[in-house]
Design goal:
The chain is an alpha+beta fold and 270 residues long. It has 2 domains: 13-79, Orthogonal Bundle (Multidrug-efflux Transporter Regulator, Chain: A, Domain 2); 98-266, Jelly Rolls (Sandwich), CATH 2.60.120.10. Helices cover 32% and strands 21% of the residues. The protein contains 9 helices and 11 strands. A hairpin with a 2-residue loop joins strand 7 and strand 8. Helix 1 (13-20) crosses helix 3 (50-66) and helix 6 (112-119) crosses helix 7.
């Protein structure tokens, strides 16, 4: 396929990122959220159009000039009509946990100050989370989930019965901080909680965290660095790891490409 033929002058990812004034890793993370949807060659290479570059430049402006995070940028661009809401294209939109966190707090008649003080974060940060102006890392979500006595399934709003078969287009998605997307692979009355984690270069869990249960992870592609009680483990594609969830752990993607991890917790907890 000729990337310069046809109606558009197609751009590869490095070219599109350079014209938009962002890094390729930022472009990938915005793409995961649905900001742009590049075409693919038969070899699965991404191809971007001038329209994609215009969207990326607008997003860059909103990030730099207005201090918005990716989720807030996309919501604003949809309200402005710059970005369409996708329907029926097989791509689920990542869940926005802001309203869910606010609902949990208000149901308990607690103030922002009370919750923020209890979990060790600032009142302003919690307020920004609830208003979807900032994203929560996995570590921060864990602290909030423990305080509210809920698990990850509550944040995914996965209360319906076990569907048995889950197609990729039906997965429930949750944005867990910048560059980290969690895709729920099964739900319902289950004793396991399986996810596909998609982790952008440099992204990770944030601070160290713990919870009840056990967990197993398998690196599908890319690299993962995980620290258990201060001991680092460097995993690459094909590696697996099993550990007790009560062990303090934090993780990140040290590579230059997106990492995919099959991650299973049991029992369902967070």
């Amino acid at each position: 396929m000729d990337s310069r033929s046809g109606r558009h002058a197609y751009l590869k990812i490095g070219e599109a990122a350079a014209q938009a004034g962002i890094s390729a890793s930022v472009l990938r993370s915005w793409e995961q959220l649905g900001l742009v949807r590049p075409q693919r060659t038969n070899s699965r290479y991404r191809l971007y159009t001038p329209d994609d570059v215009r969207l990326l430049r607008r997003a860059r402006f909103l990030r730099r000039q207005r201090g918005l995070n990716a989720r807030a940028i996309i919501d604003l661009m949809r309200r402005e009509g710059v970005l369409r809401r996708e329907r029926g294209n097989g791509a689920a939109t990542p869940s926005d946990i802001g309203p869910l966190l606010r609902k949990q707090r208000e149901a308990r008649k607690l103030s922002l100050h009370e919750v923020a003080d209890a979990v060790g974060i600032s009142k302003g940060y919690l307020s920004a989370l609830e208003r979807s102006q900032m994203g929560a890392s996995v570590g921060t979500m864990r602290k909030l989930a423990r305080f509210y006595r809920i698990n990850i399934l509550d944040l995914f709003e996965a209360g319906e019965a076990n569907p048995r078969l889950v197609r990729p287009s039906d997965r429930k998605r949750l944005q867990a901080g910048p560059g980290v997307q969690m895709e729920l692979l099964a739900w319902g009355d289950a004793v396991m909680e399986p996810h596909l984690f998609r982790i952008a270069p440099g992204a990770g869990s944030g601070e160290s965290y713990t919870h009840e249960g056990e967990e197993f992870l398998f690196v599908v592609r890319g690299k993962l660095e995980i620290e258990l009680e201060g001991q680092p483990y460097r995993l690459r594609s094909g590696d697996s790891l099993y550990f007790d969830s009560s062990t303090p752990h934090q993780w990140s993607n040290p590579g230059s490409a997106e990492t995919w991890v099959l991650w299973v917790n049991t029992p369902p907890t967070f």
